[in-house]
């Protein structure tokens, strides 16, 4: 069987439609369909079947698509061994990240990798509310993903998962707030507060719902913004309190203070996702190692925020 046709079958399994496969592989849909028919004749079994206006894989097609992944991994592993002998992690590595991780990790990684000849890293930012991080792995070598509760469907997608860091999500208060003198806050402390929230559906919005359920009070969301700097400015102005990731949040110099939240799992877990064949490339492993090292360095440089000594409260 032709490896290139096997790869088209695998792309269909990953992307779901012939049209999507055609776009990703720079072919016409008819050319993709033609190649799949040739592969089907070579296999001697039906690999796809018509469902509505589209094609879906048969059981035999899904089995062969899984085998195509194994073939792709083996090819990339062999290429990687040769690159290691030559000590040449060359080529372009594409990375998709959400903004706050890009802010705290990516610049230092790019600076470090400038010293590697022949290696080019191309970074794209994606919205933090994205649920389908695994889908991006079809188009990017490394996808930086976040979740507040577990790994979602990442494991079931057959992707390589590299743990990068666990980052606390702290309550952000204006300087002088009545709660800023406490070492740790609980949901009960936050009952009946006004909040600067995030758009509905964002991971942090679900955490706000959990705080409300635990506190027994109503959390009034007075504004919803997706940009953390805008949220910080609103909190500093005394318009409400909020939640922010600890490592990229500002501090008293911007008119805000952070306090840890107890009683809930207020942590976002950040991982890197890759297709298993792409994860074998020496260039991809080189970039991923640099990302992991920098992420660990960022985590090690942060400690829990200290309580504020209150004199004259500004906000009550």
UniProtKB/TrEMBL annotation:
Domain HTH lysR-type, residue spans: 1-58
PANTHER family: LYSR SUBSTRATE-BINDING (PTHR30346:SF29), TRANSCRIPTIONAL DUAL REGULATOR HCAR-RELATED (PTHR30346)
SUPFAM superfamilies registered for this protein in UniProt: Periplasmic binding protein-like II, Winged helix' DNA-binding domain
Name of the protein described by the UniProt record: DNA-binding transcriptional LysR family regulator
Gene3D superfamilies named in the record: Periplasmic binding protein-like II, Winged helix-like DNA-binding domain superfamily/Winged helix DNA-binding domain
Pfam assignment, any one: HTH_1
Superkingdom of the source species: Bacteria
Organism, scientific name: Plantibacter flavus
Keyword annotations of the record: DNA-binding, Transcription, Transcription regulation
């Amino acid at each position: 069987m032709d490896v290139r046709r096997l790869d088209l079958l695998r792309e269909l399994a990953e992307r779901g439609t012939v049209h999507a496969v055609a776009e990703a592989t720079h072919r016409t849909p008819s050319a993709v369909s033609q190649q799949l028919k040739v592969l089907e004749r070579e296999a001697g079994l039906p690999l796809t079947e018509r469902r509505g206006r589209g094609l879906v894989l048969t059981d035999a097609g899904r089995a062969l698509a899984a085998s195509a992944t194994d073939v792709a991994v083996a090819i990339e592993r062999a290429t990687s061994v040769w690159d290691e002998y030559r000590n040449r992690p060359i080529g372009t590595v594409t990375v998709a990240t959400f903004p706050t991780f890009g802010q705290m990790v990516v610049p230092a990684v790019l600076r470090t990798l400038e010293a590697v000849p022949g290696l080019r890293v191309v970074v794209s930012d994606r919205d933090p509310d994205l649920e389908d991080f695994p889908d991006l792995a079809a188009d990017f070598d490394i996808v930086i993903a976040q979740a507040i509760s577990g790994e979602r469907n990442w494991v079931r997608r057959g992707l390589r998962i590299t743990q990068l860091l666990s980052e606390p999500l702290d309550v952000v208060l204006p300087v002088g707030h009545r709660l800023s003198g406490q070492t740790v806050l609980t949901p009960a402390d936050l009952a009946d507060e006004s909040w600067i929230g995030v758009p509905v559906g964002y991971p942090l919005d679900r955490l706000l719902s959990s705080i409300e359920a635990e506190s027994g009070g109503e959390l009034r969301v007075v504004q919803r913004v997706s940009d953390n700097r805008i949220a910080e400015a609103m909190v500093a102005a005394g318009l409400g309190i909020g939640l922010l990731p600890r490592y990229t949040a500002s501090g008293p110099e911007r008119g805000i203070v952070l306090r840890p939240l107890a009683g809930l799992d207020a942590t976002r877990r950040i991982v890197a996702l890759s297709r298993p064949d792409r994860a074998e490339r020496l260039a991809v492993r080189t970039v991923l190692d640099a990302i992991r090292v920098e992420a660990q360095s960022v985590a090690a440089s942060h400690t829990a925020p200290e309580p504020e000594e209150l004199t004259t409260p500004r906000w009550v």
